Amino acid sequence: MQINNCHNIDDFRTMAKSRIPAPLFHYIDGGADDESTLRRNTSAYDEYDLIPNGLADVASIDLSTTILSQKVSSPLFLAPTGMNRLFHHDGERATSRAAEKYGCYYSLSTLSSVSIEEIGSLTSTPKMFQIYIHKDRGLTYEFIERCKRAKFTSLCLTIDTIVAGNRERDLRTGMTMPPKFTPSNLLSFAMRPRWVYNYFTHKGFKLANLEGKTEKGSKESLSVIDYINSQFDTNLCWEDAQKAVEAWGGPFAIKGVMSIEDAKRAVDIGASAIMISNHGGRQLDCSPAPFDLLSDIVDAVGGKIEIICDGGIRRGTHVLKALALGANACSMGRPYLYGLAAAGEAGVEAVLSRFEAELKRNMMLMGINKLSQLDHSKIRRR
After folding, report:
1. Other Cβ atoms within 10 Å of 113 Cβ, number
2. DSSP assignment, residue 244?
3. pLDDT tens-digit profile of 323-340?
4. How far apart are CA 101 and CA 107, in angstroms?
5. Which among 41, 225, 242, 272 would be 20 to 30 A from 201, CA to CA?
6. For residue 149, how many other CB atoms are within 10 A of its CB?
7. pLDDT for 192-220, tens place per residue?
8. In this structure, are residues 302 and 309 in contact, taking their beta carbons and an 8 Å threshold?
9. Is residue 237 packed enough to be buried (19+ CB in 10 Å), middle (13-18) or exposed (0-12)?
């Protein structure tokens, strides 16, 4: 399959599966336990219809919006995802450059394989850094100072990963960082010679932001589940979040909000935004889809804090439905990772191009030319 033959996210997924070894593909693709929440994240959108109006002037379509005080050309937000260089040797460099080209807000993970400083100097697009609270609490504040020097425009704290979800696909495939070649997975790597060549002929994989802080995950192979359970602090509380908000002193999002109570707490501590997210179905299985919770959370805190709906986005219509219910933006991770694994930077660009085309076409078909025209009158539950 060639990238020009990828017409939707399922096509990019198929191409990615053919390009990278099974442990890496299933790390992108998989969820927790029975993966019911993973599936629900996308299927939830099927329960709503978009309402079109005809005979409207739609010669010009404007996708621009403001997210976390930054004017961007798209309501589509690239969620923080770790270890991108395992999926393509350009890793986060490719995803950040593609985000800049399409005017999307970009976010970098604590567990990225390219450093805060390099991404900060590489692009001028609005960018967020996502932090976890490690057991070494000093790391959090060190990250904050590094992001200030690198001129990141916002920060977010992920609150749903104090312990790793039961990601059974990773256990079955032996997924580690860096990859460990074992008798059970060697054939999968051998059948992807292009990936193997690029992995061994480019700079060695590391958790770039943690270099010199921990050997785990960079020089010592470790499963992602074991890394989270050994390194992340289970004592995380709202006081820690408030201290991080105050230390940053700028636009700050809380990622992993899945209840009205937590949404209200985020408002109380002075956060700028919440990301309604269940970590892509990778943590608590049988939790609701973010889209299922959107209306209730908008009713509770809409207008007091920005709301980003994260997870399950596979079509431009999904973005339009979330915006119509009151989200300020939508974020996605797997779709651009499929593109990255399939074809590097060109693959990420192709994914973003498909989303841009779908958003514009479907807005025209709905009879609207700017995102502010999306409201409850444009959507109905079946």
Report:
1. 25
2. H
3. 999 999 999 999 999 999
4. 15
5. 225
6. 10
7. 999 999 999 999 888 898 887 665 545 56
8. no
9. exposed
